[in-house]
C-alpha cells in the first residue's frame, strides 16, 4: 500500500524550487540558502477529536490538517517553506483515504508555495492520525511571539469569532499573508492564532507577556455562525459565549502599541476587518468591561486537551 501511495504522490507532487530531493529517498534535501532563521512547528490531528471521518470528506480533513499548521506559522509571522506529513491510517481503505487527504492538502500547499518534501505512512487498527511538521522562514523583523505585549497595548483581532464548528473550522484561510503584511508594515509587540478560543488564547498571550488583558465586551466581532449556533442550540450559550470560547477560528490576536493600533485601524490594510477589542494592563489575569462599566474578572473559555 505504501509503495502505491509513494508512486501516486510522485506523480502528483509538483516540483518546488527549494526541493533538491523530494519523495523517494530516506530523507528530503532542501536548499534554504539565504534563509536566516527558521521556525519549526508540528500539529497532530486525530479522528473523533479534530474531525469525524464517518461524515467528513477526507479532502476537507487533509486541508484542515495543513491549514492549522500554516496558522501557527502565521502566528509567528513566518513564511511557509516546507513540510513533511506523517499519516497513521486505519487498515481499511487506507490508500483511498491517504489520497483523499493529500488531494485536500495539495491546493493549499501550492497556494502558499509550500514544498511538500516527504513523509511517512503507517497503518493500524486504530483511528486516523495526521501529523504535519512545517518549516517556515522568519522575515527580517524576526519572529512574532506570544511574549512582548506591554501594558497600554491595544488588543487587535482579524475578522470575527465563534461558531466555526458549522464549517469554518475546515474552510478557514490561515492568516499568513495578513500576518506578514502587518508585521512588515507596522510595529507589533506580540501575536497568537486562535486555535482553542478567543478568551483562552488571549489569556495565554497575556500570561506569556507577564501582563493582563481587558476585553471590551461590546467590541468583540461576533460571527454570523456564532449567532446561528446560539439560536439553533438550546444550551443557553449566547453568541458572545460562542465568540469567546468556541475555538478553531484561526484568526490572529495582536498586541499593538496604542498609536500604531490607531494607524492600523484607520488604514484597515487587510481584506478582512481588524477590530480593537481591548487593552493589555499591568495587572495579570483576564478581565471584561462593558461600555464604560467597571472591570470584572473573566474566566477564559476554550478547548484544552485533557490528560489523566
Ligand atoms: Mg497556535
Question: What does this entry look like structurally?
Answer:
With 308 residues, the protein is α+β, with helices and mostly antiparallel strands. It is built from 9 helices and 13 strands. Strands 8-10-7-11-9-12-13 form a 7-stranded mixed beta sheet. Strands 3-6-4-5 form a 4-stranded mixed beta sheet, covered by helices on one side. Strand 4 (78-90), helix 3 (94-111) and strand 5 form a beta-alpha-beta unit. Helix 7 packs across helix 8. The two termini are 35 Å apart. It binds magnesium ion (MG). Magnesium ion is lined by residues 72, 75, 193, 195.
In short:
The chain is α+β, with helices and mostly antiparallel strands and 308 residues long. Helix content is 32%, strand content 26%.
Amino acid at each position: 500500500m505504501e509503495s502505491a501511495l509513494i508512486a501516486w504522490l510522485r506523480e502528483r507532487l509538483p516540483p518546488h524550487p527549494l526541493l533538491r530531493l523530494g519523495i523517494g529517498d530516506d530523507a528530503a534535501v532542501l536548499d534554504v540558502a539565504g534563509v536566516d532563521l527558521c521556525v519549526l512547528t508540528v500539529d497532530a490531528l486525530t479522528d473523533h477529536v479534530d474531525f469525524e471521518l464517518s461524515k467528513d470528506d477526507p479532502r476537507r480533513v487533509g486541508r484542515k490538517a495543513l491549514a492549522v499548521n500554516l496558522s501557527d506559522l502565521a502566528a509567528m509571522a513566518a513564511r511557509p517553506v516546507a513540510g513533511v506529513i506523517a499519516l497513521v491510517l486505519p487498515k481499511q481503505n487506507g490508500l483511498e483515504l491517504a489520497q483523499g487527504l493529500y488531494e485536500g492538502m495539495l491546493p493549499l500547499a501550492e497556494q502558499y508555495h509550500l514544498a511538500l518534501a516527504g513523509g511517512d505512512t503507517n497503518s493500524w487498527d486504530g483511528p486516523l492520525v495526521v501529523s504535519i511538521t512545517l518549516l517556515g522562514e522568519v522575515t527580517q523583523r524576526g519572529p512574532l511571539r506570544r511574549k512582548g505585549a506591554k501594558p497600554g497595548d491595544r488588543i487587535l483581532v482579524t475578522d470575527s469569532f465563534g461558531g466555526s464548528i458549522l464549517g469554518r473550522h475546515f474552510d478557514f484561510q490561515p492568516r499568513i499573508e495578513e500576518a506578514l503584511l502587518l508585521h512588515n508594515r507596522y510595529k507589533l509587540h506580540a501575536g497568537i492564532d486562535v486555535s482553542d478560543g478567543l478568551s483562552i488564547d488571549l489569556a495565554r498571550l497575556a500570561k506569556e507577556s507577564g501582563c493582563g488583558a481587558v476585553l471590551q465586551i461590546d467590541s468583540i466581532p461576533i460571527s454570523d455562525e456564532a449567532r446561528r449556533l446560539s439560536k439553533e442550540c438550546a444550551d443557553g450559550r449566547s453568541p458572545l459565549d460562542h465568540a469567546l470560547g468556541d475555538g478553531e477560528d484561526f484568526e490572529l490576536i495582536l498586541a499593538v502599541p496604542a498609536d500604531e493600533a490607531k494607524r492600523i485601524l484607520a488604514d484597515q490594510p487587510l481584506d478582512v476587518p481588524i477590530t480593537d477589542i481591548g487593552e493589555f494592563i499591568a495587572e495579570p489575569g483576564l478581565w471584561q468591561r462593558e461600555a464604560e462599566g467597571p472591570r470584572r474578572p473573566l474566566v477564559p473559555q476554550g478547548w484544552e486537551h485533557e490528560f489523566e
